[in-house]
Every structure is written in structure tokens, then in C-alpha cells.
Amino acid sequence: MAETKQSKPPAKKAAPSKAVSTESKLARLGLRTDMDLVLHLPMRYEDETEVIDIRAACLRGGQTSQVEGIVTKNEITYKPRKQMIVHIADDTGELMLRFMNFYGSQTRQLAEGTRVRARGELKHGFFGAEMVHPSYKIVNEGAPLPTSLTPVYPSGEGLSQPVLRRAIADAMGRVDWTDTLPPRLIEKMQLHGFEPAVRLLHNPPQQVDEHALAERSHPAWTRMKFDELLAQQLSLKRAQDARRQKGAAPLAAVGSLTAAFQAALPFRLTGAQARVLEEIRADLRQPYPMQRLLQGDVGSGKTVVAALAATQAIDSGFQAALMAPTEILAEQHFRKIAGWMEPLGVKVAWLTGSLKKKDKMAASALAESGEAQLVIGTHALIQETVQFARLGLVIVDEQHRFGVGQRLTLRNKGADGLVPHQLMMSATPIPRTLAMTYYADLEVSVIDELPPGRTPIVTRVIDQNRRDEVIERVHAAALDGRQVYWVCPLIEESEALQLQTATETHETLAAALPDLQVGLVHGRMKPAEKQEVMDAFTAARVHVLVATTVIEVGVDVPNASLMVIEHAERFGLSQLHQLRGRVGRGSAASVCLLLYQSPLGPVAKQRLATMRETTDGFEIARRDLEIRGPGEFLGARQSGQAMLRFADLETDGWLVDQARDVAHALLHDPAGQPVVEAHLERWLGGREEFLKV
User: Fold this and answer.
1) What is the enclosing helix (H) or strand (E) of 651?
2) CATH homologous superfamily of domain 457-614?
3) Of 147-161, 424-438, 527-541, minimum mean pLDDT range
4) Helices (H) and strands (E) in the chain, counts
5) Beta carbons of 435 and 445 less than 8 angstroms apart
6) What percent of the chain has pLDDT over 90?
């Protein structure tokens, strides 16, 4: 689209609102203050410092060039579609400018005889040399060329680059350029000054290292990245300090229930489980709320650690609540934990949205009276009607599946105005730099060891054309006494379509394997129906379980040792890893077959290769971060953190370390407080609340 493109002029009466309109468009981009505009840095640059003649541009074909010429012809054609063709010429040759989208005003603006400067990629089309949708300017003969690279900014609807450039230039004339960092820190870290760095990024001189600018490795970019990371670290660490000022009930007792629970377990805790349990126990004894993230690969035994944390709360005279994102996962937890605890005299209540009203009220009454010492459920736990007598500990499983508001609601149900301790669990391991950057206000415990007796899962990647061979393999495994999961493809556009695929796959397999029991579970089934099929599978009455991704987490059937995932190319890495974790839970050798549809795109190829090469959840998480970037990895801001705009965690990990150390030093030095306030005001401008979990 041409740079000087004008929208239809508003009616004369509306003219005074033009500035307001631009303001609201800027606000939609989050640009509300002068400093917001100044920190709205270019995403790339165009070199408009040179004009070459049309003949030279044609010889360079395929490259971006800037030419200048007189319009010799301007026509609108309708084949194959409506488009405007503008012919321009200089002394050396002629060139076409082709516009598929254009305004009536542009045809008048680019009238014959007009001098135009156009920049774009020159291609040799059917009718000769052309630029499609170049940026252009109407100029007078001898008009001076820019002396610096032209910035191109992230923009929004109705905001042209010239409007953004003017708004940013105006803001730069008004802001307070005082550096928020003290000179000794700037010198020690060999950083650019704030004002020179920002001015260079908005107006890079001709002699600048263009590669360093494009790669964001220029010292001016380093200063911006450091400032951004420092603001984030300061904010998260302040949130952590503020949490420590809040009161929580110390859950100090590790008493008779905990001792009886551990004695009744049919296995010993692994070294890693014992280590993280001690970290959690130490936190629970404190008079301020624990905020700990328990990470562990699929099948590493997080549930038993969470149950032992709950026994410490109950031993101390308080209640515990465990919230899971799906009913099937919540029910798995309920069956397992209630099976451990009820024989020891603990009352465990079950609360989900699908319960009948009478059952819901009964479960709520048990929580409110304190009779239920442990309450397990889904989002139903956070409803206003659900109250607790003495809630001391909140456990949130697959915490990234819940929004920040949902987690806070449960935290606000603490006893006597105190904040309950919070233990969050995740089977999606978070790479170190990501944990340091986005979870800097949490303590992180990692179970980095699988229970003994687990066999590694072998993963094979197989073309969909070999489906018949896969069905034969399923038959052989079932006849050998093994059970099989068959996971249907993820169809994001339509749950109904996904359901249809699962139903059709179930019918196909039932017909192909008449001597086997083939079961089916999907998200639309009633919880009781779903549980009936799952129970039959657990009891080995069902040989093959056809399922949608409802079995992604929490399902534990040690005899299941073969998994088939159809259309594996449609799933993300973390989901594939979670699904694969449903097998390999017993002593039999386990196999996961990833069926894919050719041809594969580059990202799908990377994912499937990663799954074939490793079963290590931390390595998979690292590669997933590489492929998707932090925004998507964390679930599109749903955990409440602002995504980084300038720093890249893959390449700038060293800066994260430095920003963390500087934040710690500033926060613990009374003389550093003015620096902290000024820096946070500049970079977060009152949006600090947004960063708090």
C-alpha cells in the first residue's frame, strides 16, 4: 500500500475530531503517552537515501530499489481483476507501478506529468518491469533525499507510517530524557545512554551497521533490551516482596496423618520427590504465603508430592483445595488421592460443574463447615457460592490452563483474611531463561527423575498411507495382552468435526478388529459415560481406546503400552509429549506411533523430529520455545505477564542474568529506590499490576 494513501475525506463537520481519531488509533496500539510513543521502536528500516535510474534497477531485478520518474500514463484495468497501472519513466527507461488496492484519490494524485519517487521490489512481469504496491512519494525535481534510514513501525488499522513518524517525532520533542539508570551502572555495564540509543534507533545515520540494526545486536538495541528486562525483573521481584508482606497461616505440623500416609504408600519416594517435598514443607512453615511452581515431566510423580503437601495442611488444622482444568483430570486426582486418604479418616469432597444441584450444595456445605478437609474439583471451586472454613493450601494443576483471575479468586478464599499457600503444578517444563523471566516472583521446584521401573518410550513417525500396517500392529499388541490408545486428530475449527472423526475412527477400528473390544471417549460425553469407558479400559475389559485429547493429562493405565496419534502434524510439541506420557507407565516396552499426512511443513517436520529424537520433557520444552517463541509458549499472555517486545530469550539469556542481578541489588539498596520508581514508571507507566500473578 502506498505510503501517502489517503482514506476518503471526512465530511467537513467532522474535521475537528481528526486529532481525536488519530489519538484513539494510537491508543489501540497501547500508545497513550509521549513515552509510549518514544518507546515504540521500528521493526525494520528502509534505505531511502539513494535513488537509482530505472535501467540500473531493471538490471538489479528481484531487489528492492528506489527510483524516480515522471508519470506517463495512468489507467484502471479490470482483467483479471480491478487494478491501477501507473507507468513512470526517466531518461534511461520505463517501469510500471501496479496497485491492486487503491483509493480514487490516488488516481488523481498520480496523474500524468507528476514526479514520483517509488520504492519496492522490482520484478519482470508479463508486460515488462514492474513494482507491485510500492511505497511512493510525490516530489519536486531536485527534492533532497533523507540522510538516515527510514524507520518502519508496527502499525494498526488506519495508521499510516507518515502519521506514526510525525507522532513519534513530536513526542521526542516533549519527553523528559533523564536517564533512569545511574552513571556508574551505565559505565560498569558498558551501556549506551538512554537518549542517544533511542534517537539512533528512530533515526539511524547513513553509516550505521545495518546488519547489527536488523539483527538487533547493535549497542542501542542492547540498551533497550536491558532496560525492558530490568523493568520486568524489578516488577516481578517487587510482587514477590509484596507477597511476603502478606500474612498466611504457618502450616508447621508434619504429624500423624502425614506419617500414616507415607507408611501406606506402596512405593518409596524418589530422591527428587523427597527433595522438592522438603522445599515445599519449608515454605508451608512460613507466616507468608508460599507461591511455588512444581515442575515435573509427565509421569514423574507430582500428584503424590501435592498430596503430601495437603496432609501437612490437614495435620496443621487447615483445609486444602486442589483445582484441575478438566473434569477427567480432576476425577483422576480425586480417585487416586481419595483412595489414599479416605482409609486414613480424611474426608475428601468432590465438586465440579456437571454435578446435580443437590450434590453441588452438599459438597459446598462440606467445604464451608470444614468437615471436608480436602476439596478436589474444577473451576466450580472458584464460584462465589463456594466458601471454606479454614482454607490453608491451594493446589492448582496444569496452572497455565487457568487465567490469572481464576487463580486469584481461589487465593482470596483463605481463612480469617489470610492468604492461603499456593502450589502450582505443571507437566510442561519451563526452560530456565523463561522461568527466570516470566516466573521471577515464584519459587520453582523441579522433579527431574522418573520413578524406577519405567521403560523408555520408543517413538516412530509413519506416513498415513501405512495405516493398515498400524492396525495390524495394534491387533498383535492387543493379542499379546497389551492395551492401546488411538488418539484422533485435533480439529481446532470444529469440535463437531473432531467428534465425527473420533466416531468414524471408532467404527473403522471396531470393524477391522472384530475380536477386540474397542472403546470411545470424547469431550461431549457425559462424565458418567466417560468414566464408565475409562473404568473398563483400566480394568482391561477394553483393548483399544479411541479418544480425542481428553486423555491428554492425568490418565494412568500401566498396562497400556502402545499409542497411535493420528495427524500428529496438527498437534503442538507439548501436547504430543503429554499424550505420549500416557504410555510407558508400566514395565512393558512402550511405543508411540505418530501418523502424519504428507507433505509436511517445516514447523511440523521440526516437531515430529524432536518427538522421535528425545523423551526428555525439558529438552522438548527448550525446542518448543525455539519454534514458538515465549508468547505462544506461555499461552498467549493468559498467565497475565506482558510479553517482551525487544529482548529475545534465545539470544539474550545473558542479559536476563544481568538484569536479575541488577534488580536484586537496586531493590536491596535504600539509595536504589528512586531509580526503581523512575525506571518502572518509564517502562511500565502504571501497568505494573499487569505483571503480577
Assistant:
1) none
2) P-loop containing nucleotide triphosphate hydrolases (3.40.50.300)
3) 424-438
4) 24, 21
5) no
6) 42
